[in-house]
Specification:
The protein folds into 2 domains: 11-292 and 375-442, Alpha-Beta Barrel (TIM Barrel), CATH 3.20.20.30; 308-370, no CATH class. It is built from 16 helices and 13 strands. By secondary structure, the chain is an alpha/beta fold. The longest helix is centred in the middle third of the chain and has 19 residues, at 158-176. The protein has helices at 40-52, 75-80, 89-99, 116-129, 144-148, 158-176, 234-243, 254-270, 292-304, 309-320, 335-340, 342-355, 362-370, 382-394, 410-425, 438-442; strands spanning 11-17, 57-61, 104-110, 134-139, 184-187, 192-194, 204-205, 210-211, 226-229, 246-249, 279-288, 377-380, 400-404. Strand 1, helix 1 and strand 2 form a beta-alpha-beta unit.
Length: 448
């Protein structure tokens, strides 16, 4: 295949969970998976592997509750390891900062259950301690289980969540910018530490938040940490167009991704920003074998052997905020069911398209969500996987990938040691880091 223009290189992000599984919920059952997920060294080793591969960023998804929508209980999540463990991300990122030098580090923090000052201070601190490598993945959270851990009965509605998120991020950015770049003086002779005329109260008073400011952390090496966002709805895409430096998507096929890419770039331009300043990154699994047959057998095992159907239903209930315990696995998805939960329609339509038939069952939905069917899956030898990634990258579908692991650390090791050198030889990916900060890696200017 032909090489990409040298000025345009893929962005590669490693997608992590701080717990017992990757986004693939059967990962803990893979025979060679490392299960030392309660040990900081586990996360440090994975981050060093990704840094060896010159990845732009490692970022962590998060949820603020065990999956507890199915049967109004966490029992099945605990029994089958369906993401019952979620460690605090600040401590993990701190440990990764100490073990790496260049790779960006990112974490998910909710605009629904945190406070702007807390988030602004956390990520400003991480940006300083990492010398400019921090990123915040902005989410509005997904379900009632999370709400109930924060003293509420129900999760906010979709539009309310985005109204709150809009004011939240405006407040966070104002706090990040409450120190001028040159506010610190630190003159021992005169005793002047900082210029008070260059440190500002923000005096924000809004519907959702009040914040006086200033932030207790000076302006950061990146100006402000990078922003990730994964909104798929119209409102989510508008939010991403206004704020995101990286947009994280779950488009299952090339044609869908190409259409989404065009739509999102149009929205970014309409928001008064350059589309080239935002990286559009589908989540992609890689299944790599020394031969095509080995890769196909590994794929078969991932699809058929490691995800328990009950774990699938538990996770499906969580993400759609709908209790599937009232249905059997082989119940056909009905219009009544679709109307009961807003997210089911989009998922059902995607599964119908993938399977090529009109009738889909609860089992089909669960398998789609919890195995390897929710994003592109690049399968084959290292050369074949690189071909597939190149096709998407040069075909107007993306600016790179959020690489999801089928198991850890092996899936990332395969990409770094087998696929990355091929992408580098083709001129599609960096051979060395050319800057210090995450914005340097992404080719993004420091905000003034």
């Amino acid at each position: 295949m032909s090489s990409a223009p040298r000025q345009r290189r893929m962005t590669l992000v490693g997608f992590m969970q701080a717990g017992n599984v990757t986004v693939y919920s059967g990962s803990w059952r893979y025979p060679s998976a490392d299960l030392s997920f309660l040990d900081l060294g586990y996360y440090q080793k994975i981050a060093r592997t990704l840094e060896e591969g010159k990845f732009d960023l490692v970022f962590f998804d998060d949820r603020l509750a065990m999956p507890g929508v199915y049967g109004d209980s966490v029992a099945e999540a605990v029994r089958y390891g369906a993401r019952p463990i979620k460690l605090d991300l600040t401590a993990i990122l701190g440990g990764i900062i100490g073990a790496t030098d260049r790779i960006g580090i990112g974490a998910t923090y909710s605009t629904t259950y945190y406070d702007p000052f807390h988030v602004a201070r956390t990520f400003a601190t991480l940006d300083h301690l990492s010398r400019g490598r921090a990123a915040w993945n902005v989410v509005t959270s997904v379900n009632d289980s999370e709400a109930q851990n924060f003293g509420l009965e129900q999760h906010l509605g979709h539009d309310e969540r985005y109204d709150r998120a809009q004011e939240f991020i405006e407040t966070v950015v104002a706090l990040w910018e409450s120190w001028d770049d040159d506010a610190l003086v630190m003159d021992r002779e005169t005793g002047i530490f900082a210029d008070p005329d260059k440190v500002h109260e923000i005096n924000h008073r809004g519907k959702w938040f009040n914040a006086r400011g200033p932030l207790t952390v000076p302006r950061t090496p990146q100006g402000r940490p990078a922003i990730l966002q994964a909104g798929q709805s119209g409102r989510g895409r508008e939010f991403a167009a206004q704020w995101a430096d990286l947009i994280f998507t779950g488009d299952p096929g090339l044609a869908v991704a190409q259409q989404h890419y065009r739509d999102q770039r149009d929205r970014i331009a309409a928001a008064g920003r350059s589309p080239d300043d935002v990286k559009f990154l589908p989540m992609a699994y890689t299944v790599i074998g020394e031969t095509e047959a080995i890769a196909a057998e590994k794929e078969r095992l991932f699809l058929e052997s490691y995800v328990h159907p009950m774990a699938s239903l538990t996770l499906l209930s969580e993400v759609l905020n709908y209790d599937f315990s009232q249905h059997d696995l082989d119940d056909v998805v009905t219009e009544e069911m679709i109307n009961a939960a807003s997210g089911i329609r989009g998922l059902a339509d995607g599964v119908r398209q993938h399977l090529g038939r009109a009738d889909v069952t609860v089992r089909d939905l669960a398998a789609h969500r919890a195995t390897l069917l929710q994003g592109p899956r690049f399968v084959g030898t290292a050369e074949q996987v690189a071909d597939q990634m190149e096709e998407w990258f040069l075909g107007g579908a993306c600016d790179g990938f959020v690489v999801a692991a089928t198991h850890l650390p092996g899936a990332f090791e395969d990409v770094v040691r087998m696929v990355v050198p091929i992408l580098q030889r083709r001129g599609l990916f960096r051979t060395e880091y050319e800057g210090v900060t995450l914005r340097d890696h992404l080719g993004l200017a420091r905000p003034s």
